[in-house]
Amino acid sequence: QVETLKEKLLEQAQEISRLRSELGGTDAEKHRDLLAAENERLRQEMKACEGELRELRRQQQAPCRDCPHLQEKAGLQEQLSQLQREAEETRAKLVELDLEVQQKTNRLAEVELRLKDSLAERAEEEERLSRRLRDSQETIASLKSQPQQIKYIIKTVEVESTKAKQALCEIQSRNQYLQEQVGMQKQVLKEMEQQLQSSQKTEAQLRAQIVMYEAELERAHGQMLEEMQAMEEEKNHAIEEAFSRAQVEMKAVHENLAGVRTNLLTLQPALRTLTHDYNSLKRQVRDFPLLLQETLRSARAEISQAIEEVHSTNRELLRKYRRELQLRKKCHNELVRLKGNIRVFGRVRPITKEDGEGPEAANAVTFDADDDAVLHLLHKGKQVSFELDKVFPPQASQEEVFQEVQALVTSCIDGYNVCIFAYGQTGAGKTYTMEGTAANPGINQRALQLLFSEVRGKAADWDYAITVSAAEIYNEALRDLLGKEPQEKLEIKLCPDGSGQLYVPGLTEFRVQSVEDINKVFEFGHVKRVTECTNLNEHSSRSHALLIVTVRGLDRSTGLRTTGKLNLVDLAGSERVGRSGAEGSRLREAQHINKSLSALGDVIYALRSRQGHVPFRNSKLTYLLQDSLSGDSKTLMMVQVSPAEKNTSETLCSLKFAERVRSVELGPVSRKAELGSWPSQEHLEVPKRLLGDSPGSAAPPGRGHASPSPGQLSSRSASIRRKLHTSG
Ligand code: ADP
Ligand code: MG
């Protein structure tokens, strides 16, 4: 089969070569690879067939290597060889026995022969003796007839007869002996015969066994033959199968070949077009590098031109952006200047449960629907209107309030100093606006959060460090709320570098980087404050609380350094304390508060009216904030008022203060005479109410803090301090 396949392959090769020659030069070249591949495939198929054939042959030579018949056959052969060995042994034994029998038979024959001889001898002797006896008797008889003679003869005979008798006896005894011998020999013969018989029996047995073994051998042989037959059949079957498969494959190969042939025929025109295409492509390919170079050159030129354009546009944009930025800053500053560096907002808190019920708790404040800067107060039956920069109604959220101040807060990143004051009578919402609640924080926390996010946004070019300090001014004494010695009074000193800047030696500064840090600082400061006084609400209403945030920036590219300060001040309650009602420490507190609030008013007035002398030194508060109030710093006064009927007189005072502060910024120097000097004694006006019913004592205890024991608090503050040190 392989041979025929090879032949066919050869034929096909010839056919291919014929076709190739028919197709001619270039076309044939195109198809050559195709046919070669086909050829290769056929060759591989043939190889596979050969391999199969070889395998079959091998199988034929070594039939069923692992089949169970083989094992059985081996077992049988083993058995057979054992049986043959046994038969061999038996045969050898038989030959031995035969030899023995032969020997014994020979001996027997010898003995018989000897017996025969002795019998013949005896018979001969008997014959001779009987003959002599007869002769003797005849002689006796003849002698009797011849008495004398006979007598003698008798005598002779008698003599002779004794001799004969003796001889006879001897012979008889000898006969006896011989007979015994014969008996013995017969006995031996009998035994021999018996032995022979048993040997014959054994032989028969062995023969039977041999026959049996032979039969078994025959059977095994038959079985083996059968198996061989079966294997032969199997082999034939496999060969047949392989043959038929090969035939089928051959057929497929033929078909393929036919297909190839037809393909070849159909491909010819395609080949021609392909050749044509190929040639044109070849030409194109030849020209391609030139074309490509040309295109690349032009593309490169275009790209570099575009890049150049983009660059110039970018530069232009950057320039414009910078100019715009500059302009914006200018505009902002202009806006701030126009609006005034001092802005005054009013915030009216809602009526709370603490305001009680009845006419005292009635609402006395109304708003202008069209103007969010106007507020009306109904005081003693008369409506008084005030205009501020903005008024927040009771429903204004902390978020809304903060939105209005966030521009101020961010300007401290640019290096501006900012002050935000919360002014108002106790219970009007100063602390709520500045600190807020944990769930709804006020300006302090929101400002720091905003600073953090702004600083993060500029982190690509700037390095910023934000630090916070917390201080309290009580009775004109400055104390560090974050320090180790809260009782220690701090001094405000001039910087020894001659810059004219002020600083507070010993005032603790904590670097903060996250909201968690701020919360820790606030908590720490709060705990300090609580530790130091017995009634925080009362104490806080009698002291100014300051949170000083310093933002130091470094522009990494230019090395420019900026420092901005954000002062968040929760002022002491502005309520007037009755001169007659207050005495001792309470009077002293009231005087201090009044003095510092008046001083704040004076300073603001002096600043806005651009007076040569600004009386910063009149109070600790203004002195401390000197840097942050002067120059191009920005100030926001958040005037807090209560809308309750019972607080209208304090509300009126606060709003008047607010309006005055605001009018200062509008008023040029010439208006100074009109406005007159700051009414510093305003806060010491004689009150109609006594201290007992002042809003200070009526301050809602809701926000009040339970007074923990000082020991507990100092240990707690120490632990918070530790935390702050580790984090900051
Ligand atoms: P102050 O600090 O001026 O003495 P507080 O901030 O302690 O006043 O406010 C007094 C009470 O009024 C507090 O219970 C506070 O929660 C509440 N309060 C103040 N302002 C608001 C407001 N805008 N919205 C809701 N509650 C307020
Ligand atoms: Mg307060």
UniProtKB/TrEMBL annotation:
**Which stretches are tagged as biased composition: Basic and acidic residues?**
682-691
Which molecular function term from Gene Ontology is one that the record holds? Answer: microtubule binding
GO CC terms in record: adherens junction; centrosome; cytoplasmic vesicle membrane; kinesin complex; microtubule
Q: Where in the cell is it found?
A: Cell junction, Adherens junction; Cytoplasm, Cytoskeleton, Microtubule organizing center, Centrosome; Cytoplasmic vesicle membrane
Q: Which SUPFAM superfamilies match?
A: P-loop containing nucleoside triphosphate hydrolases
Q: Which Pfam families match?
A: Kinesin
> How does the UniProt record describe the way this protein sits in the membrane?
Peripheral membrane protein
Q: Spell out the Basic residues composition-biased ranges.
A: 719-728
Report residue spans for region: Disordered: 678-728
Q: From the record, what ranges are coiled-coil?
A: 2-146, 189-241
GO biological process, any? microtubule-based movement
Under InterPro entries, the record lists: Kinesin-like_fam, Kinesin_motor_CS, Kinesin_motor_dom, Kinesin_motor_dom_sf, P-loop_NTPase
Mark out the compositionally biased spans (Polar residues).
Answer: 709-718
Q: Which family does it belong to?
A: Belongs to the TRAFAC class myosin-kinesin ATPase superfamily. Kinesin family.
Protein name (database record): Kinesin-like protein
Gene name of this polypeptide:
Kifc3
